[in-house]
Amino acid sequence: MKNLSGSVLILALCVTGCSNPTKTEKSEEKLNLEDHDAKVEFRRFTYSLNSNNKQIEVLLRKINWIDVNKEAKQFGLNGANCYKKDDDYFFIIDAEHTLNSETALKAFEQIKEVSKLTKNLKAINQPFLTSEAALERIYELDQKAIYTPSDGQLKTAIGAHKRFVWTLLLNEDSTLLKEYKEVHSMGKAWPQITKNMKFIGVKDMEIYLDGYRAMLIMDARPGFDMAVSGPKWQELPQEKEWQDHVSKFQRIAPGSSIQEKWQDMEKL
């Protein structure tokens, strides 16, 4: 997980943040092998699992996610991946547009390695993912419609891209959380900030919430280098103003740098 240059914060996030600049390569993942064909519609479902049980981490790390994604296509899934930060696990499941959270999870659990994982988790009394626990999406670049977590987010494939997945903790204040959602709601993003993201090479961006933890998915053009583009992004029009505007939502120490805010999630 490497260096998440300040600019990254940019709109994506009212959330605020980035990761250590010295870690940029780690966070900049290789091009997704599961890229969908251009213009193809699909549904995205995200889930979170929080536990300090180290057995869960061991079990999840044993999974061959490349094999999972190959087999997933037999069950109407375009791709599935898991990301980790501390005791939080973030699952992203892309499925055919006809599926909902319930049917997508049933399909996911038919995959051999996932089926085995489910049984192993049950043996240690650890609940796995449930359809009603699909996460709420509060922001999407160029969002045109609102979908419930159970219906799934209807998206259009963007072709080859380089993916970044980050997380940030928000202040535990229900009033601020409500405002945070409002600031990121459809049509509320500052036009210049959206323009900046596209200019710098961002193809898609989403923010999902699990309580007071935000997870951000950013897909950038192939070859995107945060170490190079980050500083340039941060200097674009209204970026500083935007960061000042969203700082009250962030659970960070006073004076923290942007690199200390958003944290990379490890792809398992």
TrEMBL record:
Keywords assigned by UniProt, alphabetized: Isomerase
GO molecular function: L-rhamnose mutarotase activity
Domain of life: Bacteria
Broad EC category: isomerase
Pfam families: rhaM
Enzyme Commission (EC) number: 5.1.3.32
InterPro entries: Carb_Metab_Mutarotase, Dimeric_a/b-barrel, Rham/fucose_mutarotase
Extent of the signal sequence: none
Name the record gives this protein: L-rhamnose mutarotase
